Amino acid sequence: MKAGTRTSKPEINRGLRKDHMKKIFASTLMLATSLAAPMFAQGETDRMEIGVSAIGAFPSGSSGNGVQQGGSYSGGVLASYRYFFTAHQGAEADYGYTRDTLQYSTFSGSAGLPSNMHEFSASYVYRMPLGRFTPFASAGFGGVVFDPATGGSFAPVAPAAQGRPTFVYSVGADITITSHLSFRAQYRGLLYKAPDFGTGIGSDSAMNMSEPAGGLVWRF
Q: Count of alpha carbons within 13 Å of 207, Cβ hemisphere only?
């Protein structure tokens, strides 16, 4: 008897991961384009910036539905691009990556699930140049994709990659090193709904990811 072709769960999960990331990347790109539109209306060319920073990742806890949910502290990397269409105002696009273990506790026990976290965001930026010291603040929207790092399961349903919309905000400052190089120190925060990886086990409430960051910025 000839068996029919079947799609394995890992293949399905990989497809879901790619779909989530494509959708969030497309949404972020559209948002960045809309934020950057005024710069072209100005008909001017102003300073662009590319930054690379190391980040710490400190998720807050959340509770609901009889579930206490949190995560381990970890680190990662953040890449950013800024375009300033006036001396003070600009648009920013970011990609960040971290990996930690999401933790779930219920009346019946607790479990942890290692996960890769990909963040995409587009923001409005306001800065105030003060000589070699330039403080700034930003706010915007984007998405995060939680991608299980193992094939293990903590529920009757195997965990799958899951995307969540997020509100992003930051405050910080750039300290000039040379005419084209600065050191950037900032605090970023991401507010999103706690993930359940499609298992139905989760707090179903908001979490905040605190991300202190420090790195270098190239201006051109």
A: 27
Burial grade of 168 (CB within 10 A; 0-12, 13-18, 19 or more): buried
The pLDDT tens digits of the residues spanning 57-115 come to 999 888 887 888 888 899 999 999 999 999 999 999 999 999 988 888 877 777 788 89
DSSP string covering 143-190 = EEEEEESSS--SSSSPP--EEEEEEEEEEEEEEESSSSEEEEEEEEEE
Within 10 A of 37 (CB to CB), how many other CB atoms are there? Answer: 11
Q: Which of 144, 188, 184 is nearest to 163 (CA)?
A: 144
Q: What is the pTM of this model?
A: 0.76
Tell me the domains of the chain and their CATH numbers. 10-219 (2.40.160.20)
CA distance 69 to 50: 35
The token pair that represents 37 in the structure block = 């539109």
Distance, C-alpha 184 to centroid of its chain: 18
Say if residues 6 and 111 touch (Cβ distance below 8 Å).
no
DSSP 8-state symbol, 116? E
Rounded Cα gap, residues 176 and 190, in angstroms: 27
Closest C-alpha among 193, 176, 192 to residue 184: 176
Geometric angle at alpha carbon 202, from 16 and 149, rounded to 5°: 45
Cα–Cα nearest to 170, from 194, 140, 144, 197: 140
- Rounded distance between C-alpha atoms, residue 43 and residue 102, angstroms: 47
